[in-house]
Design brief:
Largest sheet: none
Radius of gyration: 30 Å
Number of strands: 0
Structural class: mainly alpha
Helix content: over 70%
Strand content: under 5%
Shape: rod-shaped
Distance between the termini: 102 Å
Number of helices: 1
């Protein structure tokens, strides 16, 4: 291989290393984003369960108010 071939190979290897680093950074960002979405989903599920519980409690209280006092 000539010196020029080695230089071309070195340029390609450097480009591959930079692309690898970029992809690694993108992967880390996507993983962090996924974790944030999971946390948000868990928070919303908990909030939804709390709201459902409150609505069920209100319905039960309304039903109790409708029944004649004996």
């Amino acid at each position: 291989m000539s010196n020029q071939d080695f230089l071309a190979l070195e340029v390609k290897i450097d480009a591959l290393i930079k692309e690898y680093q970029r992809l690694e950074q993108e992967k880390r960002l996507l993983q962090a984003e996924r974790e944030a979405w999971k946390a948000e989903r868990a928070r919303l599920i908990k909030q939804n369960e709390l709201a459902r519980s409150r609505v069920e409690t209100m319905i039960e209280r309304l039903k109790a108010m409708e029944q004649p006092n004996v």
